[in-house]
Design goal:
By secondary structure, the protein is α/β, with parallel strands linked by helices. The protein folds into 2 domains: 2-140, no CATH class; 147-428, tm_1862 like domain (pyruvate-formate lyase- activating enzyme), CATH 3.80.30.20. The protein is built from 13 helices and 18 strands. Strands 8-7-6-5-4-3-2-1-9 form a 9-stranded antiparallel beta sheet, covered by helices on one side. A 7-stranded parallel beta sheet has the order 10-13-14-15-16-17-18. The radius of gyration is 23 Å and the shape is globular. 35% of the residues are buried.
Amino acid sequence: MILEFRTHEPAWEIVLSDKGTSISLSYDGVPIDYYDRQGRLVGMFVNDRHYRRGLDNRLMEKFRVPGERGRIRRDLLGVEKRRLIDGAYDRARRVAEQVRSGKVSGVRARMSDAPDLRNEALERLEPITRYDYARLEAERELFNRIYAPVGILPPDQYMSLVVQMTVGCSYNKCTFCDFYQTRRFEIKTPDALREHLRGVVRFFGDSARLRKSVFLADGNALVIPQKKLMERLAVVHEFFTFVPPEIEGRAERSAWRKEHPGSFEGLFSFLDAFSALKKSAAEFEELRKHHLRRVYVGLESGDDDLLRFLRKPGDAASMVEAVEVIKAAGLSVGVILMVGVGGDRYAEQHVRNTIEAVNSMRLGEGDILYLSDFVNHPGLPYERLAKERGIRDLDYGELVAQRGRIRAGLCWPDPTRPPKVALYDIREFIY
């Protein structure tokens, strides 16, 4: 439903859009504020700048500067963050007051035959008006009791509902990764997972409708031995309903979810290639029957010398084999490679061998290939080792050129049904 009307004090042209999973409010076209069904602010577009709020009440600003390369992003803190969040809620409350007092005109709706449009607007505004910055801060504390810090997700899963079946990463030795440095790997017991899920369900409430899928976290939750993994999946299925795996096609799956409100598309998770080869195609098939849909593998590079420098487990051949096993079970894969990793020292062999490895994976429709620009985080082993070996990071132009060379060398078994190829900027993740 889309409602359009004018408020009198102040004089705003309002567009209220109910997408079923979220609510957005537009004031004279901009700003635009987005909320989940619970009333939590999700994001804003104000003065040509995008803002995304996390469930831990972190607020990220993203914008472009004319003449500058790339996008600038920064976390807002203190008074500046509070001013923007309070501003969004103040706007929504003023609109609700105007609607409640009848100080609106020109109320009309698209895609609705509801007779009382003012009450329709109030029904959608009321949950938002019950929130403010103080309540979001209180919920941040609650969120942090339910979740360990959510390290990273693939971009297509940024709006998933995260279930921390494990905490941390079972390997946690890659020289370039800082996502799980401060925590030990832990597999939740069935009872601990059940308690975690009770907290997740209470916290999200009706806002879970904004989440299309369930992501099994953290770094490689599928590393759990199969019998124990199936026990924990049974716990997950006590809480959530999923589209049956035999229903294929985006339209069909969407229709099924509309008939089953609160259901999810499926389960998604990371898994390192070394651990993937410990599972058979039959075990992956069992997981598929229990609603696993896609497994994400960090290839990073197809060059074995570079993989050893990065301290990645396994080699390029094992990663290709792992993808073959996963796909043989009817699952799709998400393959992540890093552009610019290894700097100038490894640049040529990284491009050449990465193209060969990716092409050997025979990716197709339903799969995703992510190109992630390498970020050299200060203080990690990669930075020290690169300095010791005289390795120079690629500059922006070299990164763009390397990305273009990799893309130009890719080919697919069926060019009419290729995988999705997308960029992945880890600096823009916020949950």
